[in-house]
Amino acid sequence: MTLLSLETLTVRLGRRIAVDAVSLRVEAGELVGLVGPNGAGKSSLMRGALGLARAEGRSSLTALPAAERARAAAWLPQSREIAWPVSVETLVALGRLPHRAPGAPLSAADREALEAAMAGVDVLRFRDRPATELSGGEQARVLIARALAQAAPLTLADEPTAGLDPAHQLAAMEAFAALAGEGRAAVVSLHDLGLAARFCTRLVMLDQGRVVADGPPAQVLTAERLREVYGIESFLAQADGVLIVQPLARSR
Question: Domain containing 77 — which CATH number?
Fold first, then answer.
């Protein structure tokens, strides 16, 4: 089942083309990693797909009415700012709004989704604390939990592991992988190529707004392509069937 379809999606930021006629499909059961250097167009592609940035071309999500779109896709932006000192549980519960009538109390299904989301990224112990009193990394996990609580068929997350310690980076990626394992899908932008290779079923590499590679991690993350796109020399190896990627030095 196709959960996202983009056809020649183009996003302009001022006079610059941030995303240049990108076409791709995301199917149920996929964990798709968007990789590429800074300014490659990863964030702009996701924002354009969601209708949060003015775009040309077609996105299956923007064709949906707003309320239906909110149930079809969860969005975790790069910004980690939490402005109001509400409890962690209250903040995570905002992810359930697309499924509730205005002013309706949390249902049993809502509470089950909250518990699972908070447990998945290890924030259950903070549930009663004001979210603004948490560390930056803890706040990032709370916002991931909010997106997971939405329980949408598709989740789009922009650099979800930024600012997390290694254990919680793994927990976050395990949570996104679990979505794919349940028959849903996630698209995540990542700078950590090791995490991308370890968890993603498929990688889409962008450079200057265009797709330069799309496929399994071992086919996308080659030494030659990393040298050409990122300007780095890398150590690549297989361990227990998983691709290991370690940048070593700049090549230019």
Answer: 3.40.50.300
